[in-house]
Structures are given as C-alpha cells and as structure tokens.
Predict the structure.
Amino acid sequence: DAEGSQRLRGSMLAILIVLVITVAVAILLLFSTMIGLSPLDILASVFTKSSGTLYPPFSSKVLAARTRHEGKEVVLNLPLARKWAAFCHSPDIEKHISAVYVSLPLTMSALIRHVVASPDFPLSVMGVVHAKHVIEQFECIDASVLGVYNYSISVTGSRLNEIGAECDVLIEVSSPLNSRLLVSTTMTFTSTDAKKARAARKRRPELTAAEQAAKTNLGPTASAPKQFVEEIKRDHSKKYAACSGDMNPIHLPIYCKAMGLPKPIMHGVFSLARGVAAITDAYSLATVPKLRIAAAWKLPMPVPATAHFTFGELVDVTKTEHANGLDTTKFKRHIEFLATREGKGGTLPHLRGVVSF
C-alpha cells in the first residue's frame, strides 16, 4: 500500500544516509592515519579554509613566528635512512647522505604534524601540492655528521598567484655541536582555485612547436646528455612511502581511490632523489661540500610508469627557469636534469631541475 511504500522509501533513505556518513568517516580516518593529522585538524582545515585562498592574512614575519617549530638533538634513524638510500640508488650513507634526504624525509613527520597541521598554516590541507623545492648544502654530510641534529621549520611567506595561492616553508637542519647549518631547504606549496585555474588556462597563448619541444628537452649542454630509464613498478610508491614516512593516500594503491584517483601517483621527491643520485655518481659529488639543488614538478608520475631521465651540464644557466636566486659566482657548474613519461599527448614533463656546485 501507499503507506508501506512510503515507509520503505524512508528506510532506504535512512540507510543511504548512514552509508554515506560511514564512508565519509572512513575516508576521514584513513586520511588522518596516513598523513599523521588528527581528524579534527583535517575538518578544521576543510571547513574553515577554501582551496586557492590564503588564511590567515599575516605578514611574512608574523607567519614565520607563529608557525615555527624546532627539534633539538634528534637522533638519526640510521636503518630507515639506509632503506631510503638503497631505494633511491643513493650512495652508502656511512660515506655520504644525500642533501635530498636531509631536506625532507628526515623532517617529514615534524613538517606535517607541527606546521602543515597548524591553524596558522596559510593553505587548506586538502588539495595542497608540493610544487617546487630548493636545497642548499653547506658541507659534506655523512652518518657521523648527521648522527644527532637540530632542525627548525617555519612558513616564511605566502602569496596569491594566477591559479590560487602558494606559500614557502623553510627547513633548516644544523649540527647541535656548534650550530653549523648543514642544509637549508625552501619548499613551495600551492593550493588551486578551480575557477582561477580554468581562467588562467584560457588566457595562456598556444605554445609554438619549439616551445612545446623545450618542455621535454634540456637546455644547450656542453656535451651529449646522459640518459637512463627507471621503471616505476606497482609497488614502488608503497615501498617509498615506507622508507620516507610520506604516507599520503594519493601515493598508495587502493587508498588513492578514496581520494578520487584511479591510480596512485609516485612521490615527487623520489624522482628528485633518483635524478640527484645519478648526477652525484656521474660527477663525483659525494665529496663536494657546497651544492644547490633546485627543482619544480610539472605533471604527476602515475604508478606504474616508465620514467625517462636526462641530464647534462648547461652552457648557460641563466636561460633556465631555476636561475632565479642562484649565485653564479659561488657555483660554477650547473647540471640540468629532466624526468619525462609517455602519455596520451606524447612525451610529458614530470620534473625539471638543476644541480649547481
């Protein structure tokens, strides 16, 4: 009868609502567990901050003070560092620890828990993307130098851009013995406003054939570039997550689907570390005390995939996108590296950077 049908529809609607709430709570708890933020922190970010907008409107000086977090006399997790180095084909850490490892995986947990999770972090946590990475190393680093270390992390600046907003996070790792600065890193995070991004794409002029080709080729090099291929297998992102501490669900099989992705995407820092490891080996950089690494990610690397790496010594570093802020009197040689993959549109850029020494 009509009354029975109405009760049935009401019951089905109630069941549907319960299922939706259950799935939403499950996704929230999953995301919380993976990235190390409490559910309340995530909800606060989602409901009080919109993507592509800056919160709160503090000056750089106030922002740095309010978001600053420090760690004193932290003991290096040597077994975990070894696993990371082996996975990224980096040299034996007893003799050399990659500046890439010191720049991020070393302080990943503290960065997420104490800075990104802070109510003073200027971007919404959901959808924030690690877009650029600049590292400066001040001396050779090995297990004895980094056995115990101090660190500080703070947001040093924020601004609006054509697709939304971005902020810079400064990470400094130093020796507790005499406060020597070992590695300084500036990470740039972006948060996209969908409407702004669509408008920006419409405004951009169509690239010429030469400009399109330049996106997937190195600048002029002193000799023929070196090349190698890295097969990103199905379990790569899961293994890298385990040794780096970056458990963001977008990088993990099955869990990425809860984030709306059909496939996981490989950690961008792995591509950076793999490229730098090859350059370190080719140019014997393990014993070079001072170097600078600047990189920017273009398009994600899906898992699985075949990554094509190319690197070579630039003839003129001022022509690259990473020339800004580079002291060419301090660093005389500049090795550009590029990671690409094949996609529906042909060869697609994933990562471009320069190692200067």
Notes: The two ends are 82 Å apart (CA to CA). The CA atoms of residues 137 and 183 lie 5 Å apart.
